[in-house]
Amino acid sequence: MQVLLVEPGKEARPFEMQDALKAMQTAVGGLIQALYPWEDNAALVCNDEGKIIGLPLNRALEDYDVIAGTFFVCGTKGDGFCSLSNEQMEKYKAMFESPELFFRCEVGLVAKKCSPGEYQQAMQERAQRQNSAHKRNREPER
Predict the structure, then answer these.
(1) Which regions in the chain score pLDDT beneath 70?
(2) CA–CA distance from 108 to each of 22, 64, 103, 104, 105 (Å)?
(3) Residues 6+ apart with CB under 8 A from 124
(4) pLDDT of residue 11
(5) What single DSSP character describes residue 31?
(6) Are 58 and 68 in contact (CB under 8 A)?
(7) How far is CA 106 from each of CA 6, 64, 67, 138, rounded to the nearest angstrom?
(8) Residue 109 is inside which H or E element, if any?
(9) Rounded distance, CA 51 to CA 34, Å?
(10) CA distance 19 to 1
(11) Within 10 A of 25 (CB to CB), how many other CB atoms are there?
């Protein structure tokens, strides 16, 4: 089935996936959870434990949630999943195309769209800050 694959730090892209539980679990890196936030026949399928196990924040979902880890958007038919229509593919590609960085502020998290290069740079800077803080915490006091 033709889905839209959305990975942290990357542009969303069409992806051909088998309509099988194992393929879906492989795509999201664990147990799947299906969300139905839209009125058309589409589902967002993500890792059920993404936030709990600390997967990287990926994209804001409207103004009420953030999806952690890789997810995909697919069509729905009855109780199952199916390919997105061409119109749905374009709609959700536009919605999730650009990677997002998340910042804490006094009102919660704020998402900022960015390029894949900006995302990688921000993640490298974050890792450097964490490594520096970790080293400072491990140094013996004099």
Answers:
(1) 134, 139-142
(2) 35, 11, 8, 6, 5
(3) none
(4) 97
(5) S
(6) yes
(7) 28, 16, 20, 30
(8) strand 108-113
(9) 15
(10) 6
(11) 15
